[in-house]
């Protein structure tokens, strides 16, 4: 075991844990409990909002899988990763103040609250809740596995122990502190992600003898590494551009991201968050993926892409700095799972239980139930993760694309197109998820684009066609 | 029940359009530099600060330029509107469910 590395990691885990626990003391009782537990009372300021959006979005693939792919494919993959810059401002700009204002008017706590009020349809609610629970549960399991593996590979403890440490620390603060604990810890985790990026990038450039030297060696090894087309010329412009949908504008459709667009305090917070968020997401993506490419010169011949970052950090940095760098992917994983865990439990409690099973549930009971369901969901993910499936990045993308195709139009057009109705939304949800799963399994990357593109187009058509059938239109002008 | 729409929505609509236009410009910048400059034969590549020019402009300058553009957009074109004014300001203006 390498104590130099473990100490900063342990310090990070313990600090996050303590901060998470500390914030849970602010949880209010009384009628505002749900607002407070699942949305931190809509009080987020600009910095915290930016950080929680970036950190929730940035996952293990930003720090492990992505740089590993960049190591193999070269600058072309960094170009692809930079499609994510747009997530820093697009979601907040498009959902915008209207979403935040509508959410306040209808007292929405979850994304589904918004869909329910907008479409007034039981089926929209049920289908949405179902896809959130199913897809995000599997995404969460993949991230959980990633978290366990990370701790395992850095510290040498067994996978099960690592998983236990990881889930233990996340679960306790999410259950106790709810959304506020999640976003405050996200802010810390986001900062750790930025610092880790600076350190690893600087360390790799120094170890590689400067950028000019690194580029020269890459070019000598395989000139394609410094083209936009990838080392094996597999990255066509169309394919790379299609990632602007998957990891760029399509992110609007991810419930764990869009719910944040109803959680901020005021217009100023939103404005600041757009600037900070764009900078931070651009910086992390550019820096981490570049470090992956540069790592090829410093540490050639790594076969398993997921091992690039950990090995690189240990190679080019002194132990304690490597510990800080390796805290970054852990932070990314934690900040994603904590948000998703809370979202899944809010879907079960608020969207299903309170909406349909017991609308008049007592405050005290709802409170207990919220803690209870969050714990049960968390523990079942833990149980699933003990015997883990492989291919972290793809499992993650499966949930990603499916949710984007399902939700992007019911949210965006629900907000901006008055004619949109429940039939449209239901059609869009079904066609989006259905076509994504079908294409992903049968015709992945059809016509040279990422699988997500067609389902998003199809669900748009479904939404529009569905909305031209006779259906209930909103009979208030809240929307 | 349908009277005028909430005035704040008009602000929001305009900002959503601006955000979308910025994203489209961002894509064009990114694509044009990457495949315009990067599509040439490698022998003809020029380098800036050690990076191939296509990468420098598309990814690095793209990051800097669009962060600044977001700042400009938000600072000068986005409007601050109050979020909670239903009861005070809008009584009788039709914003009732």
UniProtKB/TrEMBL annotation, chain A:
Keywords, in A-Z order: Cell membrane, Membrane, Transmembrane, Transmembrane helix, Transport
UniProt-listed Gene3D superfamilies: Sodium/glucose cotransporter (1.20.1730.10)
Key word Transmembrane present: yes
Membrane topology: Multi-pass membrane protein
A GO CC annotation given for this chain: plasma membrane
One annotated GO biological process: sodium ion export across plasma membrane
InterPro entries assigned to the protein according to its UniProt record, in alphabetical order: Na/Glc_symporter_sf, Na/pantothenate_symporter, Na/solute_symporter, Na/solute_symporter_CS, Sodium:Solute_Symporter
One of the record's GO molecular function terms: sodium ion transmembrane transporter activity
Subcellular location per the Swiss-Prot or TrEMBL entry: Membrane
Positions of transmembrane segments: 6-23, 44-64, 70-95, 123-145, 157-179, 191-215, 235-254, 275-299, 319-344, 365-386, 392-417, 424-441, 447-465
The keyword Transport appears for this protein: yes
Family designation: Belongs to the sodium:solute symporter (SSF) (TC 2.A.21) family.
Listed name of the protein: Sodium/panthothenate symporter
Lineage, broadest ranks: Bacteria, Bacillati, Bacillota, Bacilli, Bacillales
TrEMBL record, chain B:
Membrane spanning stretches: 16-34, 54-74
Keywords: Membrane, Transmembrane, Transmembrane helix
Entry-linked Pfam families: DUF997
InterPro entries, per the entry: DUF997 (IPR010398)
Top-level taxon of the source organism: Bacteria
Name listed for the protein in its UniProt record: YhdT family protein
